[in-house]
Every structure is written in structure tokens, then in C-alpha cells.
Target: Arabinan endo-1,5-alpha-L-arabinosidase
Amino acid sequence: MVLFAFLALGLIFTFHSARAESPVQYIGTFPDTDEYPLPIQGNLEAHDPNIIVYDNAYYAFHGGIGVPYFRATSLSGPWESRGKVLKEPSIIKKGARKRPWAPSVIEKNGTFYCYYALTKGGTRQSAIGVATTTNIDDGPWEDHGAVVSTGSSGLNYDVFPYTVSNAIDPAVMQDPADGKFWFTWGSYWTNIWQVALTDDLLSVENPKSPDARNVAYVTLDGRDNVMLKQYPVDYDPQGIRPVEGSFMSYRAPYYYLWFSHGKCCHFPEGRVLPPGGDEYSIRVGRATNITGPYVDKDGRKLTENGGTIVYGSNHGDVYAPGGLGVLTAIGTDQDILYYHYLNKSIGLAHKDAHLGWNYLAYEDGWPVAKSSSNTSTDPSEDGDDSR
Ligand SMILES: *[C@@H]1O[C@H](CO)[C@@H](O)[C@H](O)[C@H]1NC(C)=O
Ligand SMILES: *[C@@H]1O[C@H](CO)[C@@H](O)[C@H](O)[C@H]1NC(C)=O
Ligand SMILES: *[C@@H]1O[C@H](CO)[C@@H](O)[C@H](O)[C@H]1NC(C)=O
Ligand SMILES: *[C@@H]1O[C@H](CO)[C@@H](O)[C@H](O)[C@H]1NC(C)=O
Model:
């Protein structure tokens, strides 16, 4: 229903690329809503960024050869390269071993864990591996190989739910309630799954029969069958479930499960864009237990098409934001939502994705993107869902 906010008449936009003389043409809808603030520019080219705060600095990782990463003392840069996590191709013999996607990094007791995804685009031939270091600035990182794999080979690929999911887009969070670490993954197919990690964070608990739960899932009634007709690609023949890129965060008293919904990329020049609202947007649900069930603002379960849009295309220029993460207010003044987005004035190619971010405020416990910081604390805002 929230999708109606994006619906507008299809228009043909012609504009001049910042780089080229010739006009770049896209056919479709660039939502011009000012419901969301413009991104604060991160000044970093990044697809699926992941950022951690450590020792008064930000470390940003993104998909690319060897998983490049950067350090800055401001989220808007300047970003200084710290090299790559993987100097060699991943030891996992699967997918694009040199060019991992969508990393996710977490620190535990002085060790940094970088989860990375290997895949062949548009297939379930995927794996999530992990590399560690005790020196985030200079490495070296040690590659420990696979945590999960899907498709027709690899670690426990024949165990449910690896048999029905796609092992990319990892995320990890420590439950503040008991210190346990939880892992989510998934993209299209059966969407987002969650399991507990072992104490060394290198594998899944009970790997041969994991206690796994589906935490977000698109059912195929209604709208998503339209998407199937729009994008007949090699996805699950049963239909397109455009949910991926999960991320978990906590702000008392709620756990939040975030994800990207819609079409992330492949917006070729001169071709028709997806109907407004079917491009990437950032959505969320919340729960009082890290294992869920997660529900959106309308009370809809995330496992039944739920998901409240927190950030989407805006101002006729910002397009398809997604690949997000959240920095919770440890080392920052306020929670921060960061993501990649495309800028119509620059281009809509994969390489044009840039880091953007906004402050998060919570209204009745629901996150709202803001353009400026507001550090004054309103105690009635904290954990009070009764208003
Ligand atoms: C944290 O790391 C230190 C040094 O590696 C080790 O001695 C200590 O046992 C670790 N603590 C925990 C809780 O794992
Ligand atoms: C969360 O739910 C699990 C069952 O899935 C239960 O064992 C656990 O105690 C719950 N945690 C909290 C903090 O309520
Ligand atoms: C989009 O790109 C134009 C041209 O480079 C720039 O002026 C504008 O600030 C950018 N907007 C965002 C939100 O990145
Ligand atoms: C900051 O937040 C408080 C509490 O939500 C609100 O009353 C105040 O108007 C906000 N100030 C600004 C400048 O946004």
C-alpha cells in the first residue's frame, strides 16, 4: 500500500550526463517526493557499503575486487584506502572468487570479521565466506573460507535452508540481551534467513541441521507477479521475490530487521526503468526478540510481504537507494542510516552508486531518515510505543 506514495505518471526524462556531452536518456519515473531528505553525500563510490566505527574512525567496506576498504574520520570523507581484505582470490572454489559482493564486518574482542559473498549473478551458485584480522588498519586478513553455501556444491549446500536460499548479502549482529551472535543472509528466492553463529563466529551453530528461520519473505500474491512479467530473468521460476541485503540493528526495546526491496541495478541508458516504486527502496520491520517475528508499521509480518519504507527515491534525482546499514549511537551522536544510491544527474550504472547517509530519529519506535542531527533527547521517545 505504501507503494502508492511512489506512483506517478511515467515520463520521459532527458538530461545531460555530468561526464558526457551527449544526453543520457532514461524512460520511466523518478519519484520527486520530498518525504525523505536528500542523502548527505558520503563522497565514496560504493555499491552495498558496510561501515563500522572503531577507534574514533569509520571504516567503509564495499563489494569489489578483494573487498576494498577505506578509513575516514567523517562519514563524508575524505576516505583513505586501507587496501583490500583479500589479497588472493577467496579459498572458496565458487562464483567470482576475486570479486566478492556485499561485505559485512563486525568486531569481537579485538578481532574483525569480514563476511563476504561469492556468486554468479542471477543464480544460487553462491557462498558466504569470512576473513579475520586483529589489525584493521593494515591487516593481514586471514581467509577462513565458507560459512554457508547454496547451489550445487560447497559447505553444506545440501542442507535446508541452503537448498532453497541464496548465500549472498551476509549480516551479523550481537544480541545485547545475551551476547549471542546472529547471522542473516539471502537474496530473492526464499528471501532472508537467520541462524546463530558459533562462538568463534566462523560457522553456523549445528551446521548439519541449523535452527534457521525465515525472517522476511515475499509471497507471490498480487504485485510481485507483475514484477515477474516485467523482468523475466533466470530467477526462481516460481516468481520474483525482490528482497535482499538484510541488516539487523537494535534500539531499546526493539530489534530492527532492515532490507532492500526492488530492482537494485541494471538500469541501462535508453531503456525502460521499472515502474516507480519497483526500484530499490529501504524497508524495515521490528520485533522484541532478535529471532522475530518482525512486523511493519501496519502490523504486517515481514514474512508476509511486510516492510515499512524508511528511504526511497526522492527529489527527482536520487534513485534506487539500498544496500544499507545502520550505525547505532555508539561513537556517533545519533543512529545513522547509510546506503548506496544513484544520482540521476550522474548516471544509473552500477559504477555510479555512491555512499549516502542520513541521521535516524525514532517516532513511536519507528525509524525516520533526517537531514540533520538532533542530539537533544526526548525521554518520552525512548521505548514508548503507547502514544
Ligand atoms: C579477548 O582477547 C584476549 C586476547 O586475545 C583473550 O586473552 C581473552 O580471553 C578474550 N576474551 C574473550 C571474552 O574472549
Ligand atoms: C527469543 O526467542 C527465543 C525462541 O526463539 C527464546 O528462546 C529466547 O528466550 C527469546 N529471547 C528473549 C530475550 O526474549
Ligand atoms: C547529484 O549530482 C549533481 C551533479 O554532480 C550534484 O550537483 C548533486 O549535488 C548530486 N546530488 C546528490 C544527492 O548526490
Ligand atoms: C529535536 O528532537 C526533539 C525531540 O524529538 C524535538 O522536540 C525538537 O524539535 C528537535 N529539534 C530539532 C532542531 O529538530
About this structure: The mean pLDDT is 87. The first strand starts at residue 11 and ends at 16. The chain has one domain: 40-370.
